[in-house]
Every structure is written in structure tokens, then in C-alpha cells.
Amino acid sequence: MFQTTVTVDQFLQAMVDTFYMVGFSLLVGSIIGIPLGILLVITRPGGIIENSVFFKMVNPVINMVRSLPFIILLVAIIPFTRLIVQTSIGTAAAIVPLIIYVSPFIARLVENSILEVDDGIIEAAESMGATPMQTIWYFLVPEAMGSLILSLTTATISLLSATAMAGAVGGGGIGDLAISYGYERFDSFIMLVTVVVLIIFVQVIQSVGNWLAAKVRREN
């Protein structure tokens, strides 16, 4: 029979911490990333509100942050994390780098989703006298909604993976459980359980995202 040093309460708390980190980071990251992605589309050369200064300033910054592996970003901004939450360990500390990690990721995904919309949609909006804001809200976003849902699904799964990596530096959650007990204390059973749980989470998230995207596309 398998034995483990982890109690059920510890495992349940780790799951709660993971849900909290993913949920809060996704919420704040979406609030930052979605408008940023839209701005990248409309201010790019040939966009409906072309602004080369904004685009040339923001685009490289997004590329720079996205080029950093999460584990390196996590360590590199420890002083900033301490400044914000007064600690560099635990779930609260992990949320800071998670937001910085996922915001530009969402922005780029949103940008790509909206760029997939046919140019004829924009032309139709302009022919009806729609303002730039109306074009975005009533034409571009609804047309790209299915793709946007899949983009956020991808971002959620990436966040889940990042929370597991955060466990390497005491970030809390399932990842911390796997490192602290599964790896450092050679608890193979809890390592196996955390892997299975993460796989199940990913499958559920992807399935829900696919279903929502398909539903939206049928309605459109």
C-alpha cells in the first residue's frame, strides 16, 4: 500500500492555493492583457487608430517579458515582489510574477485572435459610420470571441504550469507540495498524485474552453 507524509488537509489546501493563484492572476492579467492586445491591433501600422509611437514602445516590451522563462522571471523580480507584498514566498508572493508573466502573454494571444478577423468586417463597420470604439466592441471582439476564449484557455493552462514552477521557490500550491514532499522527501506517491491532478486540471480546462468556443461560434 502506498504511504505518504502529506495529509489530506495539506493536499486540499494546496489545491485551494493553486486555484487562488490561477484565478486571481488570470483575472488581473486579463484586465491588463486584453485591452493591451486590442491596443496593439488598432495602433499597429494600418490599424484603425494607427499610433506608431505607442506600438513601437509597447511591442518590444511585450516581446522582452515573454522571452523570459517563468522561473527566471520569478527569481529576477524578487525585490519587486517583496516591495509589493512584503515577502518572496507563499501564494501572495507568487501572484506578482504570475501577473507579470501572463499579462503580456494574454496581450499577444488577444492580438493574434483579433488579427484573424477578416478585413471586410472592419470595412463594413467603417461603411456604416462606426466609431473606432464601436468597431472594436460591436464588430472585432464579437467576431473574434471564439478564438479569444481559446486564447484565454491557453493562458489559463500556462498559468497552471507556472504555479507548479513557482513551487520551486516556495510559491505554494500543488507545485510546492510536489517539490517539498515529492522531490525533497522522496515521496513518490504525492509526486504521482500531483502529476495526475495537474493532468486532470489541464484536460478539464481545455475541454471547457473548447466547448465554450464551439458554442460561441455556432451562435455567431
TrEMBL record:
Chief location: membrane
The keyword Nucleotide-binding appears for this protein: no
Gene3D superfamilies: MetI-like
Mode of membrane association: Multi-pass membrane protein
Subcellular localization(s) per the UniProt record: Cell membrane
Transmembrane segments annotated in the record for this chain: 20-43, 64-85, 91-110, 148-169, 189-213
A biological-process GO annotation: D-methionine transmembrane transport
Segments forming domain ABC transmembrane type-1: 15-209
Alphabetized UniProt keyword annotations: Cell membrane, Membrane, Transmembrane, Transmembrane helix, Transport
PANTHER family from the UniProt entry: ABC TRANSPORTER PERMEASE, TRANSPORTER, PERMEASE PROTEIN, PUTATIVE-RELATED
Protein family (similarity comment): Belongs to the binding-protein-dependent transport system permease family. CysTW subfamily.
Protein name as it appears in the record: D-methionine transport system permease protein
Species of origin: Pseudogracilibacillus auburnensis
